[in-house]
Amino acid sequence: SILSVDAQVDKLAGPRVGVTMVQAGSLASILRKDVPLFSDDIREEWTGSTGKYGAVMSQYGWQWESRFLDGGDVVGIVEWIALVGGMEKGMFLPSVSSMVGLRTASGFEFAAGPNLSLGGIAMVIGIGKTLKFGKLNVPVNIAYVPSMDKTYNHSGEYYEEFVDPDGIENSGDEYWDVGEDEGYSVTHPTGARISVMVGFNLGK
Questions:
Q1: What is the pLDDT of residue 196?
Q2: Among 4-8, 132-136, 161-165, 189-193, which range has the highest average pLDDT?
Q3: Are 94 and 83 in contact (CB under 8 A)?
Q4: 3-state DSSP helix/strand/coil % of the chain, to nearest 5
Q5: Which end of the chain is more exposed for a tag (fewer CB within 10 A), N or C?
Q6: What are phi and psi of 157, to 5 degrees?
Q7: Beta bridge partners of residue 158, listed in sequence order
Q8: Between the CA of residue 133 and those of 82, 129, 158, what are the distances in Å?
Q9: What is the DSSP letter of 42?
Q10: Nearest to 61 by CA among 13, 17, 25
Q11: What is the sign of the dihedral through the CA atoms of 34, 40, 43 and 45?
């Protein structure tokens, strides 16, 4: 989300950089490289340090903003924020948020909306304020995405196994055992995320 000290500013589009603190969960485990990004390991029962520690990642992206309501001291705004996180760790973790909110003439803003990332769809809530240095606007924003429990379902796996009960080759009691393992489900939290972002924009 973005704030302006002047509620009459129409748009504050521009680059955004910052950092995201991630609570212990599936995303933190990927960032810590306890499990690979594109692997079924994240679906397994967690062992060792997996799922027990949080992580931090950088964010870089762009924000677009427009007004849809002008109430004098209060204006309505719509924001689109596209970010890529984890590049300092050699990862490409994209996310897109669409937020709707209000900005007061004193420069404070609150906004909320859906967030789409590799972890799925979640709700993001943001507050912020823009510092003004001449024509330079420096929006400072804090956004919160709550943790969600995500369930991974495992279907049973078919198997074939050669069985020799007495261990004596060609004794006549050997056979092939065929069947299917039982499926199971595991539930892991995604981990809450708190992001602190800073942007730059030249006012009119």
A1: 97
A2: 189-193
A3: yes
A4: 5, 55, 35
A5: C
A6: -110, 135
A7: 180
A8: 25, 13, 66
A9: G
A10: 17
A11: negative
Give the residue among 109, 106, 115 at the shortest CA–CA distance from 141: 109
Residue carrying structure tokens 């510092």 = 131
> In this predicted model, what pLDDT tens digit does every residue of 54-81 receive, in sequence order?
999 999 999 998 888 776 788 888 999 9
pLDDT in tens, 156-181: 676 677 777 777 777 777 777 777 77
Position 81, amino acid: I
**Alpha carbon distance 72, 69 (integer Å):** 9
Q: Are 140 and 126 in contact, with CB atoms under 8 Å apart?
A: no
The answer to whether 77 and 109 are in contact (CB under 8 A) is: yes
Sign (positive or negative) of CA dihedral 29, 35, 38, 42? negative
**DSSP H or E segment with residue 31:** helix 26-31
Cα(79)–Cα(84) distance, integer angstroms: 17
